[in-house]
Design a protein that fits this description.
heterodimer, A: mainly beta, four-stranded antiparallel beta sheet, B: mainly beta, seven-stranded mixed beta sheet, 11 strands
């Protein structure tokens, strides 16, 4: 069974600084997707960034980028120029690739709570 | 695109009562997922629908739980004879059938069983 591990329960960053959140996963499959979701306090979960395992190039979305190391099964999120609005729980998630109608549910880590200091 | 909506946002009930939650997915999405999130944990998969067909159920979904999506649009999740251990956030997500199948989440229904 696939598992996702986030080893940092809490992280803190100074506003305008850079922070990296760690995620490792375990799978025997070669094709899959990885995601980072953000869940602000009392607000809904939103997608931050997505990485397809077959793509070697790391995904980027504005101030958010990932370091995807497939062999090491590592998928870290880097947030540059941190803003107060980045404060939230961040969840790393895995989803197997869909072939012939498999369910495609997400498997989440336990999350990392990010605080941003002004 | 109005996003995924869920109703109610909060529910307080007494142990043994039945509760029902509703999820309205993004209109063009034919896949719909239910997850449960307890305090300090990531969401855990409960069940999923493709159109009106319920294609997968997690072992977390005991026989007190039932989900429907009668017309392939909105979905309901019912919990019968609620227990204190059912207290959690119930999240709904939807996705299209093609492409990366990115799931978009609703705001959740927070259930407290007294």
């Amino acid at each position: 069974a696939q598992t996702v591990t986030q080893s940092q329960p809490e992280m803190s960053v100074q506003e305008a600084e850079t922070v990296t959140l760690s995620c490792t996963y375990d799978t025997s499959e070669s094709d899959y997707y990885l995601f980072w979701y953000k869940q602000p306090p009392s607000r809904q979960m939103i997608l931050v960034i997505r990485q397809e395992a077959y793509k070697q190039q790391n995904a980027t979305e504005n101030r958010f980028s990932v370091n995807f190391q497939k062999a090491a099964k590592s998928f870290s999120l880097k947030i540059s120029d941190s803003q107060l609005g980045d404060a939230a729980m961040y969840f790393c998630a895995y989803r197997r690739h869909i072939y012939g109608g498999s369910q495609g549910n997400l498997i989440f880590g336990k999350g990392t709570k990010l605080s941003v200091k002004p | 695109d109005t996003g995924v909506s869920q109703d109610p946002r909060h529910k307080i009930t007494k142990r043994g009562q039945n509760v029902t939650f509703r999820c309205d997915p993004i209109s063009e999405h034919n896949r719909l997922y239910w997850y449960r999130q307890t305090l300090g944990q990531g969401p855990e998969f409960l069940t999923y629908f493709q159109n009106e067909a319920q294609l997968e159920k997690s072992r977390l979904l005991s026989d007190r739980f039932s989900a429907e999506r009668p017309k392939g649009s909105f979905s309901t999740l019912e919990i019968q004879r609620t227990e204190q251990g059912d207290s959690a956030m119930y999240l709904c997500a939807s996705s299209s059938y093609t492409g990366p199948l990115t799931q978009y989440f609703g705001p959740g229904t927070r259930l407290l069983v007294l």
